[in-house]
Amino acid sequence: LPAAMATIRRLLGAKAGDHLDGRRALVLGAGGVARTIAMGLVDAGARVVLAARDDGRRRRLAKDLSCEEVPWPSRHETVFDLLVNCTPVGMAPLTDATPFEVSRLPATAAVFDTIYRPRETALIRGARGRGCAVAGGLDMFVDQAALQFGAFTGRPAPTAIMREAVELALTEDGANP
To answer: How many other CB atoms are there within 10 angstroms of residue 120's CB atom?
Structure first.
C-alpha cells in the first residue's frame, strides 16, 4: 500500500503524507489490489467510487470501505480526478483491451494502471494521448523497491538505476520488448 499511495501522490502532484481531500477516484475492480488501493485512498481522504463487473463483490467492498459504488456499465458517467485500473484488462492475452473507453477520459484526469506487464498498457497509451498524467504498475514496483531500500539503508534509493534494471529484466523475460 505505501508504494501504491506514493505512486498516486506523485501522479497527483501531492507530497508524501499529503491528504487527498477533495480528490475523486474511480477504482476499477473489486479484488485484492482494488481493496488495498481503495482503502489507501479512503484513508487519505479521497472520495472513492468503485466499479467492478461482479456486482456482489463490488457492493461488499464498497460497504466494507464505506465508499460509493456504481455498476460496471455506469463507470463512464462517473466524475473523477483519478482513474485506477485494478482489473486484469490490458494484460495478455487482452493487451489491446482497456477497462475504460479512452475517448471518455477527461484530459485533466490522472490515470494509474496497476498492470506492469506489458509496461505500457493500451489504457496508459490512450490516456497519455489524451494529455492525462499517467503511471503504471512499473512505477509502483519501483516505488516499492525504493521504500524498501530507504528502510534498510536510511539513504535515498537510486530509483533511475532501479527502473532501468526492472525494465531490462522485463525485456529479457520477453514481457515487453
So the answer is: 17
The reported pTM is 0.90
Q: Give me the residues paired with residue 89 across strands.
A: 91
Strand partners, 133: 110
Q: What is the pLDDT of residues 50-107, one digit of tens each?
A: 999 999 999 999 999 999 999 999 999 999 999 999 999 999 898 999 999 999 999 9
Count other C-beta atoms under 10 Å from residue 57's C-beta.
Answer: 16
**DSSP 8-state assignment for residue 81:** S
Q: Which residues of 21-34 are buried (b: 16+ CB within 10 A; e: fewer)?
A: eebbbbbbbbeebb
Edge-to-edge strand list for the sheet holding 24-28: 68-71, 47-52, 24-28, 82-85, 110-113, 133-136
Helix axes 32-43, 55-65, angle to 10 degrees: 30
